[in-house]
Write a structure and sequence with these properties.
Blueprint (H helix, E strand, L loop, with lengths): L15 H10 L10 E2 L7 H14 L4 E2 L2 E2 L2 H24 L4 H15 L4 H16 L2 E2 L10 H11 L1 H4 L23 H4 L4 H10 L14 H13 L17 H6 L2 H7 L5 H9 L2 H7 L2 H17 L3 H16 L3 H7 L1 H15 L2
Antiparallel strand pairs: 1-4, 2-3
Helix pairs in contact: 1-15, 1-18, 2-3, 2-5, 3-4, 4-5, 6-10, 9-10, 10-13, 12-13, 15-16, 16-18, 17-18
Length: 352
């Protein structure tokens, strides 16, 4: 079952030139940001990002037209913004270049205390969540989702008693639960929820609610459930659109539809909603070994630019082992000089 509350609890040479050359040699799309935490071990950064997303989703239930309309919800907003700031300060104490992160957390807290409008709070939340995601290194996405019928059966056995057979929050146990289970058909809420946030809630549970962690399920099962519930509100948008998309699987997972619309102005909201309803075309694209190589190289470059050199080197190694090496012989048969150029460049990166 899923409910909608999210509670906390040496010598380095520049990589940029080499990365650019290698990326130009690989004709693939760009990635987003993953979910494995780096940085201060005492702060659960993924969970912190969940809390920020929660504020973006549920603030509208607490304040309207500058007035508190639900005291309980508003107190949660105040509590969450305080906890977020406290944890961001802990990140600052153990890291460098975090002044902007602290300032964003303070801005969010002030916006809530001042009862700013929902649009302003969501904008501030989105900015802070993006900054938090930048502190999180890559974690593998699922290669495949379970068949639709299998996922539906899993939802029925694990989630329907609270969320209802159609995910509308009207299960047989719903009336007994406070807070109430999420209504996944609520389009407004779904537009501001990321699949990453849903996956984290399924995996870890949510403190002080009836929502447990489903760590007994496999990663594929949990991802399948996240995609399933994250697409319920958009089924009317499933239009069989072309599999060619400017949205990557990583982006679809990391950001909400509302955030993606702002980040990718050339992509229509209909396309994003259609992909949430039916993401299978992105899984087919994700199987491209050259795309895997490019994605890891871009993540390595991002890690280098934020000063996380060990992570940058590890990602550069993954780019070779997980993406390029499996197709090395095939590329060699087609264009040996190109294969040699790319391999040499990747080796130079790993030696930095």
């Amino acid at each position: 079952m899923l409910v909608h509350r999210l509670y906390p609890c040496g010598r380095v040479r520049p990589l940029v030139l080499n990365t650019t050359v290698l990326l130009l040699a690989l004709s693939c799309l760009y990635p987003g940001v993953g979910q494995a935490e780096t940085g201060v071990s005492s702060v659960n950064v993924p969970q912190l990002a969940q809390m920020v997303e929660y504020i973006a989703v549920d603030y509208v239930e607490a304040v309207k037209d500058g007035q508190v309309v639900n005291k309980g919800e508003y107190q949660e907003m105040l509590e969450f913004s305080r906890l977020i700031l406290e944890n961001v300060i802990l990140i600052q104490e153990g890291s460098t270049n975090t002044e902007a992160l602290v300032e964003q957390a303070r801005t969010l807290q002030l916006a809530i205390e001042s009862k700013r409008d929902t649009a302003a709070v969501r904008q501030t939340s989105a900015s802070l969540r993006t900054a938090l995601l930048a502190r999180m290194s890559s974690s593998p996405l699922p290669d495949h989702l379970l068949p639709t019928a299998t996922t539906a059966s899993l939802f029925e056995s694990q989630c329907a008693s609270c969320h209802g057979p159609s995910g509308r929050g009207d299960g047989v146990l719903a009336a007994q639960l406070e807070p109430a289970p999420t209504n996944f058909s609520d389009r407004e809420r779904a537009s501001n929820r990321s699949l990453l946030g849903l996956y984290a809630a399924i995996s870890d549970g949510i403190d002080e609610t009836a929502m447990p962690g489903f760590d007994h399920l496999s990663e594929q099962q949990r991802w399948s459930l996240a995609f399933h519930v994250g697409g319920i509100a958009f089924q009317s948008s499933a239009s069989g659109m072309s599999s060619a998309s400017s949205v990557t699987l990583q982006q679809l997972v990391t950001y909400s539809p509302a955030q993606l619309t702002a980040k990718l102005p050339m992509t229509t909201l209909q396309e994003i909603e259609s992909l949430r309803a039916d993401p299978l075309s992105l899984f087919a694209a994700a199987d491209n070994p050259l795309k895997i190589t490019r994605d890891y190289l871009l993540l390595a470059q991002a890690a280098y630019e934020r000063g996380d050199y060990p992570a940058a080197q590890a990602l550069a190694v993954s780019a070779y082992l997980d993406g390029f090496e499996p197709i090395e012989n095939s590329l060699n048969a087609r264009d040996t000089p190109l294969r040699q150029e790319i391999e040499a460049g990747m080796m130079e990166m790993r030696d930095c």
